[in-house]
Specification:
Elements (H helix, E strand, L loop, with lengths): L1 E5 L3 H12 L3 E6 L2 H10 L3 E4 L5 H6 L7 E4 L4 H14 L4 E5 L4 H17 L11 E3 L1 H14 L6 E3 L5 E7 L9 E2 H4 L7 E8 L2 E3 L6 E2 L4 E7 L3 H7 L9 E5 L3 H15 L14 E6 L2 H10 L4 E4 L5 H6 L7 E4 L4 H14 L3 E6 L2 H10 L3 E4 H13 L4 E7 L4 E7 L9 E2 H4 L5 E7 L14 E2 L4 E7 L3 H9 L2
Helix pairs in contact: 1-14, 6-9, 6-14, 12-13
Length: 476
């Protein structure tokens, strides 16, 4: 593919690295000389110091022959205008924009409804953007999902199934400690599959002979209802989450509170982690305006304007005895330090919003239970849209060595009408789930399961082999 990226910040560079590794032809544009010089030293692709929202500039770098345009500058308006400009001249190019302003999404939702009702579905996309990526929404949904599953670790869920991939640490002396994967079945009646193993900072695909050791972290494919059982086998106990402190009432904190309270009202919140109806959410922010806005928006919730790092305040309000602290301030470094600090004072579990996967690793070493990397959520979402219509979603595992991909098997796929044991490639990919054409639910396959065009599969693969494996399943 030929892809033009406007914006050479962290997201633009990370995106370019992934695309270059997959042998795509990438051009990166930014109007800051220092930023573009930094990018040129890291990337083996064309770079240009210029305004990306200029059509002449875009045509100079070959936008007419490009397959996709991705706009990830610091300005929502620049991203949107650039996509709109290109759409007016080159409507067939796929256009993706990162847009942080939450208001655009509400306006877009209503506009789409009116657009479809009045004109049908064959009109141009609103703003000329095929996909709008909202970082705050992506991160908030990941945090809410982690909370729903007991804050045991990062959890990846899939549509049409209660199966998830939960990230669980193995402790010394546990049932799993010192056991090979092929012996695990005899240790428990619970049905699960180990999708990956993290050891000494390296994430890899397992084999039957892989030995699980204390200090390892496992990616376990399992039913949400069975997560407590596997946590116990790994040497821990899933705790009830009755009292939750949300630190940070900014955009992300507000979205999280909204989603949690909506689920509470529907009596579904924490249903799988045995929480009671007396679930209590407290919101804390040191900014008076943000605290007031949160108090007005959530009148039935206790909102306090205070410094969450003030031990006197924490003790007076009994925050130190809470079951979970979610740190989502705009200061990502403060989030992970504050989460670790709160746990040291007695808070049982913590979730921290961090900037990237590298900081997530640091947060884990500090003792934070779950870290959600904001920028990586955005990159994953963009990559899902760039991989083609057959690819539904992509999830980066830990620091990016592995990817979990949901895709549809096409008619020109090389795996169609073959069994999984015929196409297996140990160490390269592992098929985790399959949803047969015409069936609503995913199931865990075995070696005799046959794959046909129209089936949906969820597989895990090394990131460096991702494009090759996808072409294997989804065709060209």
């Amino acid at each position: 593919m030929r892809i033009v990226i406007v914006g050479a910040g962290f997201t633009g560079i990370q995106l370019a690295k992934l695309l270059i590794n997959e042998k795509n032809q990438v051009t990166l544009i930014d109007n800051d000389e220092v930023t573009i010089r930094h990018a040129s030293n890291q990337l083996d692709c064309s770079v240009m110091c210029a305004d990306g929202n200029n059509l002449e500039t875009l045509e100079e770098v070959g936008i007419a022959k490009a397959d996709a345009l991705v706009c990830v500058t610091a300005s929502d308006e620049v991203n949107m205008i650039t996509c709109s400009l290109v759409d007016a001249v080159y409507p067939d190019i796929l256009k993706i924009a990162r847009v942080r302003n939450y208001a655009y999404y509400f306006n877009t939702t209503e506009a789409v409804k009116n657009h479809v009702n009045n004109f049908g579905t064959k009109r141009r996309p609103l703003y000329g953007i095929n996909y709008m990526i909202h970082p705050d929404v992506e991160a908030a949904e990941a945090i809410v999902q982690a909370v729903e599953n007991g804050a045991v670790g990062n959890v990846i869920s899939f549509d049409n199934t209660d199966l998830v991939i939960a990230r669980i640490a193995v402790t010394a002396g546990s049932v799993f400690d010192g056991t090979s994967l092929k012996e695990l079945r005899s240790k428990s009646e619970t049905q699960f599959l180990v999708a990956y193993i993290e050891k000494d900072g390296i994430t890899s695909l397992p084999s039957g002979d892989s030995i699980i050791e204390a200090g390892n972290t496992l990616g376990v494919l399992i039913s949400k209802n069975d997560i407590p059982d596997v946590i116990q086998l790994c040497g821990s106990v899933q705790k009830e989450l009755k009292r939750v402190a949300l630190i940070g009432a900014g955009r992300i904190g507000t979205i999280i509170a909204e989603k949690l309270l909506q689920q509470k009202q529907k009596t579904r919140l924490f249903s799988r982690v045995k929480a009671k109806k007396d679930f209590d959410l407290v919101i804390v922010d040191s900014n008076e305006e943000l605290a007031k806005n949160a108090s007005d928006k959530f009148p039935e919730t206790r909102v306090m304007c205070a410094d969450a790092s003030d031990e006197t305040f924490l003790n007076e309000e009994n925050i130190t005895s809470f079951d979970l602290a979610i740190c989502t301030t705009h200061n990502h470094e403060l989030n992970m330090v504050l989460a670790a600090y709160l746990e040291s004072l007695g808070v049982k579990q913590s979730i921290s919003l961090v900037s990237s996967a590298a900081f997530a690793t640091i947060a884990e070493k500090l003792g934070v239970d779950v870290s959600i990397p904001l920028r990586d959520c955005v990159v994953d979402s963009i990559m899902s849209h760039l991989r083609g219509k057959a690819v539904k979603e992509i999830h980066t595992v830990t620091t990016g060595e592995l990817e979990i991909v949901e895709c549809e098997v096409t008619s020109n796929s090389k795996v169609s009408e073959k069994s999984l044991k015929e196409i297996s490639d140990s160490g390269t990919f592992l098929v985790l789930l399959i949803r047969k054409a015409g069936i609503d639910e995913y199931t865990i396959p075995n070696g005799d399961t046959q794959v046909f065009a129209g089936d949906h599969v969820v597989l895990i693969t090394k990131a460096e082999n991702s494009k090759k494996v996808l072409s294997f399943f989804a065709g060209n």
